[in-house]
Amino acid sequence: MDYKYIEQLIERYWQCQTSLEEEQILRAFFSQEQVPENLRRYAPLFAYSRAASQEQLPGDDFDSRILAMTEDRPAPVRARTVTMRSRLMPLFKAAAVVAIIVTIGNAARFSAGHDAAKDDINYAGYKDTYTDPAVAYDEMENALQLVSEGISSAAAADTASKAAPAAGADSTLKR
């Protein structure tokens, strides 16, 4: 059988010069079961277009199915605010560990090398300046009286210096 017309249509198809009717003729020809051996290599091209036309389009429930798939998603992750305390928490923990280690080290050193005679106060080495306790008491009372008078005079001078600018401000306002 002579398939020159089909070969001419294929040549025009590759040059993009075929009409829709001629392309329909090619699809119908290649949809047959018996295609010549030399034209069989073009069969998948036109069979694809036939299969594409028979593809099932999305149904009316397509939108509802897609929306149902998107509604099952978890809520979006929100950004956390990072406070200064949470940023410095590792530093605080490290400082606490160092403080504990230093404390334990000092306690171990103190307990291992503690000499009671060296650390206790030696009251025998002190010499009293007064032999009579009544005289010592009078001297201490006089010293405390001097300190009290000094504090009183400083407080009086402080209140006087605070009152002086206020009085000067009143006198300028009265003039």
User: Into which percent range does the helicity of residues fall?
Assistant: 55-70%
Number of helices: 7
Largest sheet: none
Question: What is the end-to-end distance?
Answer: 134 Å
Taken as a percent bin, the fraction of beta residues is: under 5%
How many beta-strand runs? 0
Rg from alpha-carbon coordinates? 54 Å
Unreliable residue stretches: none
Q: What's the pLDDT, averaged over the residues?
A: 81
Classify the secondary structure makeup into a structural class: mainly alpha
Which geometry do the CA atoms define? rod-shaped
Order of helices and strands: HHHHHHH
Protein name: Pyruvate ferredoxin oxidoreductase
Keywords: Membrane, Transmembrane, Transmembrane helix
Organism: Marseilla massiliensis
Question: Could you characterize the architecture of this molecule?
Answer:
The protein is 67% helix and 0% strand. With 175 residues, the chain is mainly α. Among the domains are: 4-53, no CATH class; 132-174. The longest helix is centred in the last third of the chain and has 42 residues, at 133-174. Keywords: Membrane, Transmembrane, Transmembrane helix.
Sum up the structure in keywords.
7 helices; 175 residues; mainly alpha
Secondary structure topology:
Blueprint: H1 4-14, H2 20-30, H3 43-53, H4 62-71, H5 84-112, H6 116-119, H7 133-174
Helix pairs in contact: 1-2
Protein name: Pyruvate ferredoxin oxidoreductase
Transmembrane segments: 88-108
Keywords: Membrane, Transmembrane, Transmembrane helix
